[in-house]
UniProtKB/TrEMBL annotation:
The keyword Hydrolase applies. Residues 1-20 form the signal peptide. GO terms for molecular function: metallocarboxypeptidase activity; zinc ion binding. GO terms for cellular component: extracellular space. Belongs to the peptidase M14 family. Gene3D superfamilies: Carboxypeptidase-like, regulatory domain (2.60.40.1120), Zn peptidases (3.40.630.10). The active site is at 284 (proton donor/acceptor). Keywords: Carboxypeptidase, Glycoprotein, Hydrolase, Protease, Signal. It comes from the Eukaryota. This is CBPM Carboxypeptidase.
Length: 443
């Protein structure tokens, strides 16, 4: 049979995209042109938008991919990759462009890619620091001024911190990402860096409450973070070997707790976890921060499988809705697994939805609407990442029909208050401080 006209057009789109994206570094104009071409060729599968501008006025482009790219769809989790936060760490920037190319050209052809895009809304930001990239005129394996934004600020030290007062001026790029996190229901994320070969996980900062005195700052979801980091390292060509980049630095199984590696204040992954309800890890993809362009194809091959397998982990655990007796969604209900309460309680979004990343096991899920009796449900979680859907567990508060007020977690060092209470050594004071923090959150 003769090919249909749309098939011919689709084939031409694939050829033109493949020809356009070669293995070299793409500067701002070329990067934007590629994203525009992808969106033009696959308008039903992609949505291109800018979440803000850099200090020098460059757009912070995000390409969204999925069956419903323009808007959130109930039950479909949101995932994001962010690269080039440090402008001179460049491998992630190019790897994400090739990931975009791989996803759109294999949708409808590769069953895994097709199911992934049908069940997940994927946001890709190839560069968070376009000014720094353009300012890096002499590529260097170790350091250049392009690491920072135009104002000379390190964007990965620029977020609110849960442990210390981070006395920095929030930069335009940081503010844009904070607003982006606030406006989407991100469940899982990774930010791509360079200068090492390791998957690093939260916390990057810490105090005695999180056990940092022992050299490890442990989150309530430490087991999940270890799993996420290993998912990437073991699907990478060599990260899992843990050999590091020199004889002084090794990472068993290619992973590390951020604090164990080095303490970092104002980091993006801790901010995502505490204030964004989003599990994020930091992926260091290359020993050389800005390697020669002729190595980019190898970097893409080394990371391709890991990038896909990591996205699939957004379907771990439990998801569901909290509604009233009329089926109306209840936003801002607290939903958490017992024994895993977060310093900033995880809440339902405007659609009454929640997503909790959990490893296989039996859990008690607790839903709380302020002013009403909590509901408890026991669930058995299996590994559903290969099925592209977390376990569904809904809650219906049949005796109420309310709209809870919008709430947010205060941008104060929440763990600082708990440490003070812990240092006092008085359980009653500890409870009082916890209640105080909760009252602030609920107001």
């Amino acid at each position: 049979a003769a090919p249909r006209s749309q098939d011919v057009v689709g084939a031409l789109c694939l050829v033109s995209l493949a020809a356009a994206l070669d293995f070299r570094y793409h500067h701002a104009e070329e990067l934007e042109a590629f994203l525009q071409e992808v969106h033009a060729a696959f308008p039903a599968l992609t949505h291109l938008h800018s979440i803000g501008r850099s200090v020098e006025g460059r757009d912070l482009w995000v390409l969204v991919l999925g069956r419903f790219p323009t808007h959130h769809k109930i039950g479909i989790p949101e995932f994001k990759y962010v690269a080039n936060m440090h402008g001179d760490e460049t491998v992630g920037r190019e790897v994400l462009l090739h990931l975009i190319d791989f996803l759109v050209t294999n949708y409808g052809r590769d069953p895994v890619v097709t199911r992934l895009l049908n069940s997940t809304r994927i946001h890709i930001m190839p560069t968070m620091n376009p000014d720094g990239f353009e300012a890096t005129e002499e590529p260097d394996c170790y350091y250049s001024h392009g690491r920072y934004n135009k104002n000379g600020e390190d964007l990965n030290r620029n977020f609110p911190d849960a442990f210390e007062n981070n006395n920095v001026t929030i930069q335009p790029e940081t503010r844009a990402v904070m607003n982006w996190i606030k406006n989407e229901t991100f469940v899982l994320s990774a930010n791509l860096h360079g200068g090492a070969l390791v998957a690093s996980y939260t916390f990057d900062n810490g105090n005695t409450v999180t056990g940092s005195s022992e050299g490890y700052s442990k989150s309530p979801d430490d087991d999940v973070f270890i799993h996420l980091a290993k998912t990437y390292s073991y699907n990478h060509a060599s990260m899992y070997k843990g050999t590091g980049c020199d004889n002084r630095q090794t990472f068993p199984e290619g992973i590390t707790n951020g604090y164990s590696w080095y303490q970092l204040e104002g980091g993006m992954q801790d901010y995502n976890y505490v204030w964004g309800q989003c599990f994020e890890i930091t992926l260091e993809l290359s020993c050389c921060k800005y390697p020669p362009a002729d190595q980019l194809e190898e970097f893409w091959r080394d990371n391709k499988v890991a990038l896909i397998e990591y996205i699939k982990q957004v379907h771990l655990g439990v998801k569901g809705q909290v509604t009233d007796k009329d089926g109306t969604p209840i936003p801002n209900a607290i939903v958490e697994a017992e024994g895993r309460s977060h310093i900033c309680p995880y809440r339902t979004n405007q659609y009454g939805e929640y997503f909790l990343l959990l490893l296989p096991g039996i859990y008690v899920i607790k839903a709380t609407v302020p002013g009403f009796k909590s509901m408890l449900k026991t669930v058995e979680v299996s590994n559903n990442s290969d099925n592209f859907s977390a376990l569904k567990c809904d809650f219906c508060f049949s005796e109420v029909s309310i709209k809870t007020r919008a709430s947010s977690c205060p941008k104060i060092p929440l763990y600082q208050e708990l440490e003070r209470a812990s240092a006092a050594g008085k359980p009653t004071l500890n409870i009082f401080v916890l209640m105080t923090v909760m009252l602030i959150i609920l107001k």
